[in-house]
Amino acid sequence: MSATLLFLAPTATVSALFSTLKEEGLESGMAESLRGALAVIQKRRPALVFSRPRLPGYRVEELLAEAAREEGFPPVIVITDKGSPDEAQRYLELGAQDYWLEPLDAEKIIAATPRTDAPAVAQKKPVHKAHPFDIIGKHSVVSRVLALARQVAPSKATVLISGESGTGKEMFARFLHSMSDRAQGPFVAVNCAALPEHLLESELFGHEKGAFTGAIARKPGKFELAHGGTILLDEISEMDFGLQAKLLRVLQESELDRVGGTESVKVDVRVLATTNRSLQEWVEAGKFRQDLYFRLNVIPLKLPPLRERGEDILLLAHFFVDKFCKQYGLSRLGFSSEATDWLMAYHWPGNVRELQNLMERAVLLAGRGPIVTMHFLLDDDSWTPEEEPAPAAATVSGGADAADEHATLLPVPLSGEALEHMLGGKVIPLQEMERIMIMRGLEQTSGNRTQAAELLGISVRTLRNKLNEYRTMGLDIP
């Protein structure tokens, strides 16, 4: 076994990832409390700990405090579905290694996980393979960009990847890393737009103990963590002008100064950068250093928007549908002719990312298929299921007919002991059990109706109808 991961998060948030992670040799565990998490950490020493900021009776600040006190504590990555730059700054200052927005991506987790079996991995996956970052596309523009990427991948040259938001810039960066002779080294991504200047400097270059309030220990920066591998500076155009000069020195001299440090640190890192703006225009406007632009733009890769990729739209749509059908344990689905026509006519302002999200939605709503335009949920206020939608995979042992707003719900799995405690040895009406399960689902997801519906294996619409029904009965519904 190469590594273990520990998650402190609602089951519905992470359970769908476990099978993919296991295929990559990553065993995953879950904890519901600080006490349970610390017990797992002491026994298994996971490579990474992923934690929501808050769970019932738990706050991630407690875990970060334990991490600061204990030598060798595994890195903690805070994950959230409702993030903000201020929250990111606070948790990073408390010692979190990173701050990620949900939904989580298995490939990103795999890339971030430190592995202890590098030689074995090197034998199983030679560097000439691009798995799992193969680029899907046959359009001539994509083929040219891919050919250039393959040609420059083995070098250490900096690459500037530009394109609209959602075109796959980070995927191309991971592709370059996976095709290079640094593929067995770390790949570290930093979002330059997510952090204010002073915190971004500390994240990139690290800091010494006492460098600022909250710096209770020396912390290596992302450049040091990427030593021997690749660092991705995502949305480089958003970096503060003053910090750009310090980055230029790292690129030119291959050395950095930690915040509050007195000695330079040598680093061996390949630098990739992405932007959804025209850096040339920003240089002309005085918002970006010209010397840094030239240093980053050694190899330019410009990704086309999805609307200009022709038949690649359908190729990607089928790829994502197959992926999500497999992820949720569903039979393979196809598209109706009207859905195909719509996919080709749509403008795709969110590009490939929007297409991926739309296909996941369609898979979950289509049931046994085929996928039609209604399943894209273009107008969610008019959504009316015509057939039984597919339940979310592996969250409950059964589901309810979401097309029937008066359907009886199957309960969230409980141990025999917990069920006995709940019922007190009595048999209660099924309708009452249904209400108990719904309230338990809302409690476990902190009132998040979407997650509660997934946990219960029903649609959000059915859950909403049930809650309205309970309100008319005079029950107090949060």
List the helices and strands and how they pair.
Layout: E1 3-8, H1 11-14, H2 18-23, E2 26-30, H3 34-44, E3 48-51, E4 54-55, E5 58-59, H4 60-69, E6 76-80, H5 85-93, E7 98-101, H6 106-112, H7 118-124, H8 140-152, E8 159-162, H9 169-178, E9 187-191, H10 197-205, H11 222-225, E10 230-234, H12 241-253, E11 255-257, E12 264-266, E13 270-275, H13 279-284, H14 290-296, E14 299-302, H15 312-327, H16 337-345, H17 351-366, H18 416-423, H19 430-444, H20 449-456, H21 460-472
Parallel strand pairs: 1-2, 1-3, 3-6, 6-7, 8-13, 8-14, 9-10, 10-13
Antiparallel strand pairs: 4-5, 11-12
Task: Give keywords.
five-stranded parallel sheet, 42% helix, 478 residues, alpha/beta
Mean pLDDT across all residues, rounded? 80
Compute the separation of the termini in Å.
44 Å
Number of continuous helical runs: 21
**Segments where pLDDT lies below 50 for 5+ residues?**
117-132, 386-419
Question: Helix- and strand-based class?
Answer: alpha/beta
Shape: globular
